[in-house]
Specification:
Organism: Digitaria exilis
GO molecular function: mRNA binding
Helix content: 10-25%
Subcellular location: Cytoplasm; Cytoplasm, P-body
CATH class: Mainly Beta
Oligomer: single chain
Pfam family, one: LSM
Order of helices and strands: EEEEEEH
Strand content: 35-45%
CATH topology: SH3 type barrels
Number of domains: 1
Structural class: alpha+beta
Keywords: Cytoplasm, mRNA processing, Ribonucleoprotein, RNA-binding
Length: about 110
Protein backbone atom coordinates (compact mmCIF):
# COMPACT_ATOMS: atom_id res chain seq x y z
CA UNK A 1 0.00 0.00 0.00
CA UNK A 2 2.98 2.36 0.43
CA UNK A 3 3.58 4.55 -2.67
CA UNK A 4 -0.13 4.54 -3.57
CA UNK A 5 -1.83 7.75 -4.64
CA UNK A 6 -4.40 8.73 -2.00
CA UNK A 7 -7.04 11.29 -1.24
CA UNK A 8 -7.39 12.24 2.42
CA UNK A 9 -10.50 14.05 3.64
CA UNK A 10 -9.78 16.10 6.76
CA UNK A 11 -12.08 17.06 9.60
CA UNK A 12 -12.09 20.71 8.50
CA UNK A 13 -13.33 19.72 5.02
CA UNK A 14 -10.05 20.02 3.14
CA UNK A 15 -9.15 17.36 0.57
CA UNK A 16 -5.47 16.44 0.23
CA UNK A 17 -3.99 14.32 -2.54
CA UNK A 18 -0.55 12.76 -2.53
CA UNK A 19 1.56 9.65 -2.52
CA UNK A 20 1.57 7.66 0.70
CA UNK A 21 5.02 7.52 2.32
CA UNK A 22 4.12 6.27 5.77
CA UNK A 23 1.31 5.74 8.26
CA UNK A 24 0.90 4.36 11.78
CA UNK A 25 -1.73 2.81 14.05
CA UNK A 26 -3.08 6.27 14.98
CA UNK A 27 -3.85 7.10 11.32
CA UNK A 28 -1.01 9.64 11.22
CA UNK A 29 -0.13 9.88 7.53
CA UNK A 30 2.84 11.24 5.58
CA UNK A 31 2.12 12.26 1.99
CA UNK A 32 4.81 13.02 -0.57
CA UNK A 33 4.05 15.48 -3.36
CA UNK A 34 0.87 16.49 -1.55
CA UNK A 35 -1.53 19.10 -2.82
CA UNK A 36 -4.78 20.51 -1.50
CA UNK A 37 -7.65 20.20 -3.97
CA UNK A 38 -9.87 23.27 -3.60
CA UNK A 39 -13.24 23.06 -5.37
CA UNK A 40 -15.62 26.00 -5.70
CA UNK A 41 -18.62 25.45 -7.96
CA UNK A 42 -17.33 24.27 -11.35
CA UNK A 43 -13.76 25.42 -10.67
CA UNK A 44 -10.88 23.68 -8.94
CA UNK A 45 -7.22 24.19 -8.14
CA UNK A 46 -4.55 21.86 -6.80
CA UNK A 47 -2.45 23.92 -4.37
CA UNK A 48 0.99 22.28 -3.99
CA UNK A 49 2.08 21.48 -0.43
CA UNK A 50 5.08 19.17 -0.89
CA UNK A 51 5.86 16.67 1.89
CA UNK A 52 2.93 16.80 4.30
CA UNK A 53 2.37 15.21 7.72
CA UNK A 54 -1.25 14.74 8.79
CA UNK A 55 -2.15 14.05 12.39
CA UNK A 56 -4.49 11.07 12.63
CA UNK A 57 -7.16 12.82 14.71
CA UNK A 58 -7.83 15.12 11.74
CA UNK A 59 -8.38 12.30 9.24
CA UNK A 60 -11.99 11.52 8.34
CA UNK A 61 -11.42 9.32 5.29
CA UNK A 62 -8.51 7.89 3.32
CA UNK A 63 -9.11 6.55 -0.17
CA UNK A 64 -6.91 5.16 -2.92
CA UNK A 65 -7.08 6.94 -6.27
CA UNK A 66 -7.08 4.98 -9.52
CA UNK A 67 -4.13 6.29 -11.53
CA UNK A 68 -5.75 5.25 -14.82
CA UNK A 69 -9.02 7.16 -14.40
CA UNK A 70 -9.64 10.88 -14.59
CA UNK A 71 -10.04 12.24 -11.09
CA UNK A 72 -12.54 14.97 -11.98
CA UNK A 73 -15.57 15.27 -14.25
CA UNK A 74 -14.97 16.88 -17.65
CA UNK A 75 -17.06 19.97 -16.80
CA UNK A 76 -14.65 21.07 -14.03
CA UNK A 77 -12.28 23.93 -14.93
CA UNK A 78 -8.76 24.20 -13.56
CA UNK A 79 -7.95 27.76 -12.41
CA UNK A 80 -5.03 29.47 -10.69
CA UNK A 81 -4.61 29.57 -6.92
CA UNK A 82 -5.39 33.30 -6.86
CA UNK A 83 -8.66 32.76 -8.76
CA UNK A 84 -9.80 29.88 -6.55
CA UNK A 85 -9.02 31.86 -3.37
CA UNK A 86 -11.09 34.76 -4.72
CA UNK A 87 -13.96 32.37 -5.53
CA UNK A 88 -13.68 30.80 -2.03
CA UNK A 89 -13.87 34.24 -0.44
CA UNK A 90 -16.93 35.20 -2.50
CA UNK A 91 -18.64 31.91 -1.63
CA UNK A 92 -17.93 32.41 2.09
CA UNK A 93 -19.26 35.99 2.00
CA UNK A 94 -22.44 34.82 0.26
CA UNK A 95 -22.91 32.06 2.85
CA UNK A 96 -22.33 34.51 5.71
CA UNK A 97 -24.79 37.01 4.19
CA UNK A 98 -27.41 34.28 3.86
CA UNK A 99 -26.92 33.35 7.53
CA UNK A 100 -27.16 37.00 8.58
CA UNK A 101 -30.38 37.49 6.61
CA UNK A 102 -31.86 34.33 8.13
CA UNK A 103 -31.13 35.62 11.63
CA UNK A 104 -32.74 38.97 10.82
CA UNK A 105 -35.86 37.22 9.52
CA UNK A 106 -36.27 34.87 12.53
CA UNK A 107 -38.52 37.32 14.32
CA UNK A 108 -41.16 36.79 11.63
CA UNK A 109 -41.52 33.15 12.74
CA UNK A 110 -42.80 31.60 9.50
CA UNK A 111 -43.22 28.14 11.08
Amino acid sequence: MIAEKLIVLLRDGRKLLGTLCSFDQFANVVLQGACERVIVGEQYCDVPLGLYVIRGENVVLIGELDREKDELPAHMTCVSEAEIRKAEKAEKEARDLKGTMRKRMEFLDFD
